[in-house]
Design a protein that fits this description.
globular; 10 helices; mainly alpha; 280 residues
Length: 280
């Protein structure tokens, strides 16, 4: 596609090496836009778009001749389409549609500290992490002549099941928030200000659970292709776990501060992994 000849990039000359070049360009553009517009939501806007683009780069490079690459690309495109739709209906692509948690990060980091964070982690760091998410497809490309096996079908089935679970969780949260807004606008009392039913009866964050589990399952394709259990392409799911944990803690702190009853919910419901409720 193009080459960043002044940098000796890993995987140079491979389709996923091209994806890394695209990743770095997008990271710079997103950071520049964040400085110009004074909002860091550009990273959030690219989150659901980048992994499908990276997978499609590999699929196009193979002329869609590798079955494993095609299956992986289809699944990631479905993931991206669902997440993009959910982000758009919540107003994420509108000007000023920045995630509410960034205000807390700004306050804690300070003006200078936040800009340092922005130029290191918020855009470049997270963009590289997104590239790592989809990196198992590089192994599928490297072993493209090998046919699909049982582990591929297990991985595809689990990924799709988790995708359905995430869709259900997001729709339950959307319906709840829309009804809550309607009640507030009508001057009605909102007895329950946060969702505790449906999938949220078993996990306080079922959508986060599905997200982490999906990318861990995605790594199974790399194992199916190469037969190797440990490889650098597994860093994406590890990085996602390390990213989600502090994000969940911040979300929990904000929710507990806003809703006193949230601590009762914390006491009875698993934070991430769906489990039967504890106590009453």
């Amino acid at each position: 596609m193009f080459g960043l000849d002044f940098i000796n990039l890993p995987l140079a000359g491979t389709p996923y090496g091209t994806a890394l070049e695209v990743c770095l360009v997008l990271a710079f553009v997103a950071w520049l836009l964040s400085v110009i517009t004074r909002e860091v939501s550009w990273m959030d806007r690219l989150w659901s778009i980048c992994p499908p683009v990276y997978c499609l780069i590999v699929a196009f490079a193979t002329d869609f001749q590798f079955a494993r690459v095609n299956v992986m690309t289809l699944l990631v495109v479905l993931w991206g389409a669902r997440l993009t739709y959910n982000f758009a209906r919540k107003g994420g692509y509108r000007p000023g549609g920045e995630d509410y948690r960034w205000a807390t990060v700004r306050e804690k980091a300070g003006p200078v500290g936040f800009q340092v964070l922005n130029i290191t982690f918020v855009h470049p760091g997270q963009m590289v992490l997104l590239w790592l998410f989809a990196s198992p497809i590089h192994r599928a490309w490297a072993f493209g002549d090998l046919p699909l096996n049982r582990l591929d079908f297990v991985a595809a089935g689990l990924f799709f099941l988790l995708l359905v679970g995430q869709t259900v969780a997001d729709n339950q949260q959307w319906d709840f928030q829309q009804d809550k807004k309607r009640r507030i606008a009508a001057g009605e009392e909102v007895e329950q200000p946060f969702l505790t039913t449906g999938l949220f009866r078993y996990s306080r964050h079922p959508n986060y659970f599905c997200e982490i589990a999906m990318w861990c399952v995605f790594y199974l394709f790399a194992i199916a292709a190469s037969g190797e259990w440990l490889h650098w392409t597994g860093l994406g799911c590890i990085g996602l776990i390390l990213l989600v944990i502090p994000s969940l803690r911040m979300t929990e702190q904000l929710s507990a501060a806003k809703y006193p009853a949230y601590r009762d919910y914390q006491a009875t419901t698993s934070a991430l992994i769906p489990l039967p409720p504890r106590g009453s």
